[in-house]
Design brief:
By secondary structure, the chain is α/β, with parallel strands linked by helices. The protein has 14 helices and 15 strands. Strand 8 and strand 9 form a beta hairpin. The N and C termini lie close together (about 10 Å). The relative contact order is 0.13.
């Protein structure tokens, strides 16, 4: 069920994002002659994408009939993290009707992880969330060939290289599917319903197990020729730094990411330089990035410095991106966004200090508004787009 005509996509997106509208309102918004609009709507009704939705408020004459997206439309949104699976089933307005989240290791391989995704979606169907899916959107934590719908040499995803994720999910659920990397879907989610709503040029920086950048230029995600634009986690930040999962030395995510911060926290705990982390290590047998955040809030000087050091590294890389792309906004998200305003303040400080004043004079650097929902929110947008016939 695809409406490949760009005009259909405009109509469907408008109904998705703005809700039910009269034919007159749609004609005004799309600047389309009424006869043509009626023809297009009739075709969309025939495709099962649009339905009538009662009478509009009176505009002084006969009340017109509202049209809306078919209330039976359902899209599946899947956000695969390094250690988690988040799944939502949403309606045509992208409102969740079912949600599931659980711990999972992406290194278990595609057969195990996708089998679990399918189990969760089938559970949603049994629970009454949908009769059939109209589209599936998936984000994965690694480089993706968006054109082909498969991961390509993902450093932290052994066994996933060129695995036909899109093809298998489409076949399993009998609907179109789309696959993108996790930071792109987070950027799409933030653009659709978060702090970057209606911002046409911005950078979404995901700081978690890895580090990546979703790039919005002129209102669209920029993926690059082969789909790997924004892979800033593998820009060298310290020539003498540790070896990265990609095999190179001193990459940004090797010196500051969830794993890197946990590693540094472990050293601080074992040496006793951080009493707060040493206490947590004694209690739990291990320390994590979240322990660093909690101890920093309590005023632990070493933890505060660890966060500042990481923010400085990220800020140095972002300063170069700001000078190169001149975005309207930078949004910080991902698992380490919970490090909060200590991290944000350091990133801001470095970006504002190292970038040209013309590029930073009106540049907000802010935390994600959607937080952990950014990924599934963006996957839902992509799923609807592919169902509407645009991202095929």
């Amino acid at each position: 069920m695809r409406a490949a005509d760009p005009l259909h996509v405009q109509l469907l997106r408008l109904l998705r994002d703005e809700g039910p509208a009269s034919r007159a309102e749609l004609g005004d918004r799309l600047q389309m002659p009424r006869p043509r609009l009626l023809t297009e709507l009739e075709r969309l009704v025939g495709l099962g994408l649009v339905a009538e939705a009662g009478l509009a408020a009176s505009r002084g004459g006969r009340r017109s009939t509202l049209v809306e997206l078919n209330p039976d439309l359902r899209f599946a949104a899947v956000d695969l993290g390094a250690s988690s699976i988040d799944v939502e089933v949403v309606n045509g307005r992208l409102e969740p009707v079912a949600a599931y989240a659980e711990v999972a290791d992406i290194r278990s391989g595609p057969k195990v992880i996708l089998h679990r995704v399918n189990d969760l979606l089938h559970k949603a169907r049994v629970d009454g969330a949908y009769e059939r899916l109209n589209g599936v959107g998936v984000g994965v934590p690694g480089p993706v060939s968006f054109r082909d719908g498969l991961p390509v040499s993902p450093p932290i995803m052994p066994g996933w290289d060129r695995y036909p994720v899109r093809e298998l999910l489409s076949r399993e659920h009998g609907c179109p599917a789309v696959v993108d990397n996790d930071v792109n879907i987070m950027a799409i989610g933030e653009r659709h319903g978060g702090v970057a709503h209606s911002v046409d040029d911005f950078l979404f920086i995901k700081i978690g197990t890895g580090i990546g950048c979703g790039i919005y230029l002129s209102g669209d995600v920029y993926r690059g020729t082969d789909g790997c634009a924004g892979d800033i986690g593998h820009i060298q930040a310290d020539a003498g730094g540790p070896t990265c999962s990609c095999g190179n030395t001193g990459c940004l995510e090797a010196v500051f990411s969830g794993a890197a911060l946990a590693r540094e926290a472990g050293v601080a705990a074992r040496t006793g330089t951080s009493p707060a982390l040493a206490e947590r290590l004694a209690e739990r047998g291990a320390v994590s990035a979240r322990d660093v955040a909690e101890a920093a809030i309590e005023g632990d000087v070493v933890c505060i410095q660890l966060i500042r050091d990481g923010g400085r590294r990220v800020g140095q890389v972002l300063a170069g991106l700001v000078s190169f792309t001149n975005p309207s906004m930078i949004v910080i998200g991902g698992g380490l966004a919970h490090l909060g305003h200590i991290l944000l303040a350091e990133i801001r400080s470095v970006v504002y200090r190292r970038s040209l004043p013309l590029a930073t004079g009106n540049l907000p650097v802010v935390l994600s508004e959607l937080g952990p929902r950014a990924g599934v929110a963006g996957a839902a947008v992509l799923a609807s787009d592919v169902a509407f016939g645009e991202a095929s």
